[in-house]
Amino acid sequence: MKKVKNILENIMSAEVLIGAFLVIVMVFIMVMEVIMRYIFNNPIIWVQEFVIMMFIWITMLGGSAALMMKTHVTITTFSQFFSDRWKTILQLLVSLIIIGVLIYLAMTLPDSIKIQNKTRTSSMPINIAKGHYYSTPLLIAVILMLLTQFYYVYFEVKMLLGKAVPEDYLLQMRPIFKAHKVNGEVDV
């Protein structure tokens, strides 16, 4: 499971890095659009669709990374009064519900892509069927979330059975850029 954890943590780091890059590109393109529209009076017609596509990617990658780090919003009003065993049972139940929803999404995505492929982008320089750039990020996020949930279910079942679980089983964000030591001092 250590290898699986390392793979998932590397994927999460890549998701965050790609998401951050897409945010920077999206802001840059929107600033360029404002400059082109209001200073040069020559708007870029494909910006809106492109920004929507990037926002979808950012949202799906962010949702997957949040699930990996277990940072999604949780309501603990009642569960805080439960015993550790019941908290584990509740968490396992929630994980199984999430897996069920993700499997349902994965099963319905091909039909969704077929429906969306009937329309094409109207303003993008490349004429792409909408199903590809609207549903592909969702498909990738669903696959990554399923892998993550199966990883966590494995440990939740182990906890429920009273077996030893490593304290560091939770996925952690790895530093993207590593610090280097120069003359005994950390140089970033």
UniProtKB/TrEMBL annotation:
Domain of life: Bacteria
Keywords: Cell inner membrane, Cell membrane, Membrane, Transmembrane, Transmembrane helix, Transport
Protein location: Cell inner membrane
Major subcellular location class: membrane
The keyword Cell cycle appears for this protein: no
Membrane-crossing residue ranges in chain numbering: 12-39, 45-68, 89-107, 133-154
Pfam hit, one: DctQ
One GO CC term, this protein: plasma membrane
Signal peptide: none
Bilayer topology annotation: Multi-pass membrane protein
Domain Tripartite ATP-independent periplasmic transporters DctQ component: 26-149
Family membership: Belongs to the TRAP transporter small permease family.
Protein name: TRAP transporter small permease subunit
